[in-house]
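Dear Dr. H.,

I hope your travels went smoothly. While you were away I took the liberty of generating a structure for the chain from your last submission, since the lab meeting agenda had it listed for discussion. I wanted you to have the full record in hand beforehand rather than looking at slides cold. The sequence, exactly as received, is reproduced here:
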Amino acid sequence: MRIAKLCEALFVTRSAYYAWDKRPESKREARKKELTKQVQEEFFNNRQIPGARKIARKLKVGRRLVGKIMRENGWIPKVVKKYKATTNSNHDLPVAENLLNREFRADMLNQKWVSDITYIPTDEGWLYLAGILDLYGREIVGWAMGERMTKDLVIKALRQANGRRNSPRDVLIHSDRGSQYCSHDYQEELRRGGFVCSMSRKGNCWDNAPMESFWGKLKQEWLNDKRFRTREDAMREVFWYIEVYYKNYRLHESNGYQTPQEYTKIAA
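The corresponding predicted structure, in token form, is as follows:
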């Protein structure tokens, strides 16, 4: 009865309907069905983060077609929200010259690193995250988390980066003028490691734009729509984004649409 009513509503005969229903699938329909499946896998395997542009690049197909498939299925990537910087530059400690001077291009590994601190809200209070990014390949080479925004946090991130990259010498490492980065202990750590220190101008976040950009990606793509009961819950999500997704799966336009791991492996 339902088929009969459908045919009546569409002004077609039942024989015409059954002929259409048994019609073999065209190559174009089969291709779209297969592509839809691939887009779905890329989108949901990457936790609904990438948009049509990056999925199209990964699958080597047209961006408009991927966008159409995503719209038809209601697959919408994460939305953007802005976050404020937290470091305090109101202190009497010595500051370094801005040697980086917004030259964000690097020609080799361990030539230029940028660093910063951000925060993540939890029901237990703030979770602070210090990170270091290599401008060549945009990989996060060192990071540390804690419930206090101290010099020990940035020192821990620096030691991790130094260890992971086998103690490179003469790396330019840039930060803002926060008291953590100007502290005697952090500066001594830089001297022992043979680093060259660079700092942003006071209150100028654009001098450290690549690091600010990474914090934006972490939050807009992954953390914005989550509420964390504990700091430990937030730590697990940060770990997944940095060590699993960002490093191994996220495509970067500046890397020629390669992941940080793929791009740096070629240079190593």
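Two observations you may find useful: The first strand starts at residue 112 and ends at 122. The first helix runs from residue 2 to 10.

With kind regards,
E. W.
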